[in-house]
Amino acid sequence: MSGTRKALVIGGSLGGLLAANWLRQIGWDVAVFERVPDDLASRGAGIGTHEELLNNLRRLGLRVDDSIGVQVGTRACLDASGREIRRLDLPQFMSAWARIYRLLKDAFPSDRYRFGTALARIEQDAGGVTAIFTDGSRERGDLLIGADGIRSTVRELLAPEVQPRYAGYVAWRGLADEWDFPPAVHAEIFDQYSFCLPEGEMMLSYPVPGRDNDTRPGRRGYNFIWYRPTGEHEELPQLCTDATGRCHGMSIAPPLIRPEVIARIKADARALLAPQVAGVVERTPQLFFQAIFDLESPRLALGRAVLLGDAAFVARPHVGMGVTKAALDAECLAQSIQAAGDDLDAALARYDRERRLFGNRIIARARRLGAYIEAQQKPAAQRAAHECQPPPEEIMREIGSMAVDIHALTA
Ligand SMILES: Cc1cc2nc3c(=O)[nH]c(=O)nc-3n(C[C@H](O)[C@H](O)[C@H](O)COP(=O)(O)OP(=O)(O)OC[C@H]3O[C@@H](n4cnc5c(N)ncnc54)[C@H](O)[C@@H]3O)c2cc1C
Prior knowledge:
single chain; binds flavin-adenine dinucleotide
């Protein structure tokens, strides 16, 4: 390949950092542009990992040891009285968004990562691509990577017809501190991956690294995700309305969620969940929620720009594969470029083909896993067979499985 090629990565979260590190590994000059003005590491959320993600990070040359997360060995389903009704051995590392961000961010030169820089426009010509930012500055490169998330500006500029579709439910989330657990509850549930399955809902909870990504006993965190049917036209706008009466669209900053909304969630937790788990919801300092969407891009290569990570596809989180998919996207992009030598168009065509196939399959699978929650929006008599709630053992086995264990992804 003649001369060093340059990539402009839009979005400096996990997808952007994965792309940036992978392209640097094949000798590209890479610059990352992130809209948020300062370090993102305070974004607090647990992340289920797969061996596929950890191996991808190792192939990048990163040090991945047991400190990457907290290992859980078993999954258990608890009924509303707190009694264990099913148990399954299934080892998995549960990590934290901030832990993986730190690993990737520290591996990338800080002078090539620019905070507070938001993409506004893109210009393309035969020789390459130019990114124009909201502050008026411009950067020219051979390739632009849109790793700017579900509301991607890159996608909005180049394929505005592609829009996320609301799935009919939200995920209530929270991160509690291990030290705050009463000893009896800690002994009963802390080290396992717990499921509570009220009718039409799904609650998952598990240990993750704690503050400062600490994985030492006593200092870990405890993450939960509670999927709840939420109507698009009345319920969701109400949840997203702050105390002044302003509706923030389909999401709201956690501190603006009204106290009565939080009180209602805690009361529902007491009524519907195992008491051990309801107690975690009660003790969590900051509850927040995210609406669940499906997003499928029919094209990932758009001239000299590509979509990657959540900008390209968003599968419902039941597959727990957002970060793994972004990592595999990034590796595929780097490999396609290497394999195609000087022919960038051929490389992007291959990336488009391979990652679209994977994305389509993963979306279909995640949709199936969440179908019974989505179906709560219609009367029971109108629900199809695949929209009925599966038995607990099926849910416990399939949530967050590795891609290699998913026949639909490997066939
Ligand atoms: C409830 C829930 C649970 C989940 N659980 C898991 C799990 O267990 N395991 C897992 O692997 N994944 C999970 N995910 C998915 C995972 O969080 C995402 O797939 C992953 O973070 C993808 O990140 P991304 O970098 O593509 O997008 P994002 O993290 O959204 O990053 C996009 C970045 O682009 C920046 N940006 C946006 N617009 C611009 C612009 N114009 N200019 C410059 N920068 C811009 C944003 O500020 C942001 O930093 C979960 C998601 C949800 C909602």
